[in-house]
Structures are given as structure tokens and as C-alpha cells.
Write a structure and sequence with these properties.
The complex is a heterodimer of chains A (about 270) and B (about 475). Chain A has about 270 residues and is α/β, with parallel strands linked by helices. Chain A contains 7 helices and 13 strands. Chain B starts with a helix and ends in a 15-residue tail after the last helix. Classes of the chains: A alpha/beta (about 270), B alpha+beta (about 475).
Chain lengths: ~270, ~475
Amino acid sequence: MNVLVCFKVVPDLDQLSGSDWVVDGCSRVETRFIKKMINPYDESALELALKLANPAKVSGITTNLSALTIADSGANLTLKNLRALGYQQAVRIESDAELDFAPQEIAILIAAYIRNANDFDLIIIGQQSGVGDNAKTPLLTAELMQWPCITQVTAIENDPAGNVKVTSLADEGTVTRVIKPPCVLAVGNAPFSTLRVPTLKAIKEQAAVPIKTIRSTEIRKAAPNLPDSPDAELLKLEVVHRKRKSMIINGANAPEKAKILYHSYLKGWLADL
Amino acid sequence: MSLTREQIISALIKIVGTDQVVTEEEVLKESSVDRFRRFEELHGVYTQPLPAAVVYVRNTKDVSALLKLANEQGINIVPRTGHTATEGGLETVVKNSVVLDGSAMDKIIKIDPYNMQATCQCGTPLQALEDRLREIGYTTGHSPQSKPLAQLGGLVATRSIGQFSTLYGGIEDMVVGLEAVFPNGEITRIKNVPRRAAGPDIRHVIIGSEGALCYITEVTVKIFKYLPENNILLGYTLEKMKTGFEILREVMAEGYKPSVARLYDPEDGAYHFSHFADNKCVLIFMAEGPKGIADATAQAIEVIVAKHPECVKVDTRYIKSWFDHLNWDATDVAKERAEIVETKNIGNTTEISANWDKINQIYETCIERIRNEIPDMTLVGGHSSHSYINGTNLYFVHYYNVVDCKPEEEISKYHWPLKKIIVEETIKAGGSMCHHHGVGKHRTPWIKDEYGSSYYILETLKKAFDPEGIMNQGTIYPRR
């Protein structure tokens, strides 16, 4: 089975302080100066694919893993680490376009890459990212490929018949489906999916292997039947200020403070419920 | 004949009452280890003998009575406050030890801006003291990475150091006076004066004693004017650690005192700086204090760095972002624990110091040996974060995947051999095997090599102050 995992490296927004949330020229928040990380949902997707591949090797089913990102050369370190973890292919698409809020453009590039390669059975993508936060990319990719898409995926296993067993969150619990590829899986809050860490030895072995880089224009040329332009344009960003009201309860000790909390606040609210 | 666990608990309750004595198994398990054994702990494996109880002391008299009991009955005492130790100093290696937890003694007794000092009980969180001081325009000048969690007693007991040490010094430069209780119950106070020449400086019997000689109950530290508006951050990328050490040396030798002077190698720096310094070393300074001094310090550093063409200045906003997220709070610790369980990847640190002429050699030898000799390494690197006129420290950072071994074998397979390389290479080169985490229990095997002929002095302190050997057995001093 050939699996493609799409990921992106994003700024770690937890590193931004309140005063850093300034919309610059109405189209972006300055994040150049904060450290980067793999988008957490994509990190889960990358790890779920490794979990899928490793037992498959044991059972004799070969699973080939490819990782794809649309980014500048800053993502090369992550791509090299993924190779060291067992991804056979690590590919970077370079684009000059501003893609933070362009899910359709991203989906078009992913779909173009898939069509061009023409041998992927399974596409795994994090369901959303903190930057842009549109949660559309996996769905749009599936639509462009005319493949089914399962969202909120939390686990993926091989099925002996060559199918894939996919567990996903539903309104009232989890659903497990056995599906026949090809399909797109959008990974949600998957437990135990922190990406493993490559050893120095494995990194060294992969150090000389160049990262495959493709220009976005080339990849689009190779798949001419996809839409030419995005369906939406970002016009403006606004900072939404959310404030919480708080107060300090003064009392001699914890029991006294608890009493004040109950009688002055909670009792009335509870009565209204 | 030694007391049974039940007899010990009963004797403890008689002194402090039931509320202060905790005997729940989960608490005892957590209290049998510190961060050194967190891989075992995270997998629910506890290899150390469980303590008989954890006692939350409320005042100095409690401590005195409890130590007296322990001294008479031969009960091993493990003093503790913030529980952030990293070198096994809080491990209960003796069956039916008693952990004396001072975290309930958390009062800030007095802030004295006129005499520029503050007095606190041992369980005062450093963050609480720092927050109170900053409200009125002062600072302790002490900022270890554990600041959100660590408490004054433990910080003094381990000779802690903070990120601004190059200006303010380590905790030993900040402590002006102390109250401590010795195993026979003797309560001693060292008064708070600017200096003294009345014999040896006995503060240093207590500072760094790691609970192996006495129990620290109260601490008075210096305070400083807090002038963050004058802070100037400087950051550079460079190719070689050797160049970085040379620059640090020149800054110190020329007499400048930046509060922060740090040099990261590319491996250690990758986690923080790869978005602007891929595969490069990073050199960071912060000048602070009165405006004239901060400006002059920053200017002088820029002149010194400019002599080294391989240094490229980076936008200060990169450094500020890193600096604002340097400390570890409870959330970071919880996140780290979850990641260790999921990935079986664990990181630790080993900190040493040496003179300028030896530091680069120690750095290169240790990194090379660890890469070649320790299996499953995922990161080995280091940084210098505390510099002095005659040398600097090195903070080795080492991560590995725990592969094909039980949780209880992680230390013997990876952590201990790794530490052995760093400690032995450092001592061989004439450096010190501990810069600021203390000896704990896992560097005790090399304590005689560390001290050489001066071990006589260290050994005599133990004989004099803890003749029954009831204080934190195995810490600093080999177990009897």
C-alpha cells in the first residue's frame, strides 16, 4: 500500500504573547520570530502512518510512506527527520503564493501531486491547522480526487484483505469502518500519536539524501484538469478580543473562601439551573 | 534495634499530629523518587524502598523535634521542598525513610527594601517571592528554569543558579543569612550582614548541603532594583563553539557583566532556534541594570563580537521570543511526561564547569564519546549558560529512545553510562562534575575524585554534623 501524508510546519502560536496578536496590513499576524513546529494534527497523521507501516512489515504487507509539504526550505529539517523515521519519500512543493488562507489552492497542489504520481492508495492529512484554521484541505482534496473522505480519524490499521480499518470520532462515540482504498483520511484528536524521534544514526544515514523539491507551477502543469484559481480570497483579518472576568476571593483560609464562593456565587447560579 | 514502619509513623504523629503525616501509598511512591527516575515512575515502576511517611512540617520547632527523633532512632531523613531535583537527591534509598516536606512553610517573612534583602521560609516558591518583589520594583535576580516550581529551601540546598547569574551570581552569592536545623535538633541562625571576617564563612556548610547535613528552614537573600526597561538583548549565529567560548571569555576577562551570556551548539539550539539558525551555534547576551551600565555593557559586547567575522547578528525579536518561554512550569512538565510515555524518548541534562583552557576540549570529547558509545541517541548537544572570570559551565543535553529494555533498566542502559562519560572526562580535565544541579545520589560515586585531597574537609563535616548518618543517605556522601 502506498500512503501519502501531507503536513505543514507552522509557527507555534503558544509562543505568541497577547501583545503579539497584531494584524499586520490586515492579512497576517507576524510569526516570523517564533519557533516552528509540525502542525499537531499533521504530526498525528505522520505518526499514525508510521504505526500503520510498522506492523505491516511484520505481517508481510509492504506499506510505502511518502511525506509531502508545501513550504520553503525551512521544512527540509522536518523532511529529513521523516526520512530517518522510515518515510521512503520526502517531497517539498515550493510555491511563491501566500497559502495560509488558501485551502483550495493547497488542495489543488496536493491533488496535482497525487495525480501525477498516480500510485497512492491512502492520503492522510491533519484535519486542520492553527494557522488558517479552515479545516477544509482534506475535504477539498478528496473532492478534487473524487475519493471518499473520513474525518475525525483517530486510528488506522491494515486489514488482511488489503483494506484499511479506520476508527473515527462520531457524535456519540467512535465508529470503526473497513474501507477499500483509495480514500482520504482527515486525522483529528488521535490519542497516543506524538511523533516518534529519529536516532542520530538514522539521521546521519539520511543526511546525504537530497530532499525532492518541485515548483508549484510544474506540478500544476502536470495535472491540467484541476481548477485554475482559488474559490475564495482573504480580504481582511481582525483580532477578536475575548476577555474573562475574574475576581479574587479574600478569606482567612481555604474553607472560608470556599464558603464565600458557594454562598455568594455558586448557590444562586445552581438554583437557576 | 530499629523501629518498625508503624512505630515510626506513630512517633511522627506524636510530634506533629495526624494531619501532617501522610502515608498513602501513591504519595509514598511519588516521594521515593525525583526527576532522575521519571522514566520508571511514568511506567508505574518504583524500584526504591518506599518511605514510611511524608511529613509536612509547619515550623522550625517541628523540624527540630523530628530530626531529634530520627537521630535517636536511626531514621533516614530526606529533606524536600519543591520536589524539582534532577540528580536523585530525593530518592529514598533506605527503607522506612521519612521525607520531611517543607512546602507548607511558605511565608515571605520580611521584604526589607532599605537593606535590600528579603527573608522567607524554606517552602516559599521562588516565583511567589519574585512576583511580590516585582510589584514593588525589585527582583531576586535568581531565575532558574525551575522558577515556577522550585522553593527557596531546595534552591539553597542544591547551590542553584539562575539564567541571570553572570550579573547576579549563583544562590551562594545571594544568600546573606539562614536558619537551619541539625540532626541533633539544634536550631542555628546565621545573621544577615553584608560581610564578615570572623572565621570561615559557615553559610557554605549549609548552602549546597543537599539535605545531607541539616534542614534549611529560613533563607534571607539579597534583592536588586528591577529595571527591565533598560534590558538589551543581543543574539548572533556563528559556526564554531570554540569561537563562542573565546567571545564569552573576552567579555568576562574585560570585566563586563551581562546578566545573560549563553552559547548553544547547533544540536542543542535546534529545538529553540532552527527557524533562524539552522545548523549554527547561537550566542546570546542580555545587558541589564541602570541604563548607563546596560548601554555600555551592550556596546562593549558588540565591539568584542565584531572582532569575529563568523558572527552574524540576528533580529532581537527572535531572541526575545525564546527568552519569554525559557522557564518550565507545571504544564510543561505534564506535557513532557505524556510525550515520554508515548514516544519512549527521554531527555536529561548533565552540567559541569571548567576553566577556559579546558572547556572546549571537554565539550568536544564528551560529545564525540556519547555519539559513538551510547546507543539509540536522538540528540546530544550542549550550551554554556553561566560564565565567570576564569571559566564557564557546560550544560550537556542528551536525549535517547529507550529500546529493548524494561523501564527499570533505562538508567543502567543509557542515563548512567552517559553521565559517567561526562563526569569522568570533566574530572580528568580538571573541571567540576557538578555545576548547579548538585551531586544527588548519582554522582556520589565520583565524589572523592571530584574533591581529591580536600575530601577530608567534606568528610569531616559529615562526621561532625551528622555522626549518626541519618541525613539523606547516599546524597553527596557514599552510603554507609
